[in-house]
Amino acid sequence: MEQTRQLVDSITRGIQEKKGSHIVVADLTGIDGTICQYFVICQGNSPSQVEAIAESVSDFARKELGEKPVRVVGLENAVWVAMDYTDVLVHVFVPDMREYYDLEHLWDDAQLTHIPDLD
Fold this sequence. Notes:
This protein is an alpha+beta fold. The protein contains 3 helices and 6 strands, in the order αββαβββαβ. It has helices at 2-17, 47-65, 95-101; strands spanning 21-27, 38-43, 71-73, 80-84, 88-93, 111-115. A hairpin with a 3-residue loop joins strand 4 and strand 5. 33% of the residues are buried.
C-alpha cells in the first residue's frame, strides 16, 4: 500500500514536470470490484504535451521507484493516453477528450484529491 502511494506521488511529480494540469487522484481502495487502487487523471493542452507528460510519468516512476507500466495505449494520436501500473492507472487527456469522458464522475463514490497546478 505504501509503495502504491509512493507511485502515485512519483506519477504526480512526472505530470507536474511537464506542466500537466487539473490533476485529480481518485482513491478507489474503498470500492469493491475496481480494476486498480488509484486513478490519476490530468490534462495537457495539446497532443504533443500529452505525449511529453506520459514520457515524464514513465521516467519519474522508473527512476524513483524502478516501476514500468504494464501497458501504455493512446500514444499514436495522444489525445488520451492510458498508462497501466497495475495498482495505478494514469489517464492523460487533451481538454475536450477529458471533458467528454469525464472519468472523475464515473467513480462518484471514490475519494477525489485535486492537486493544485504549479504555475
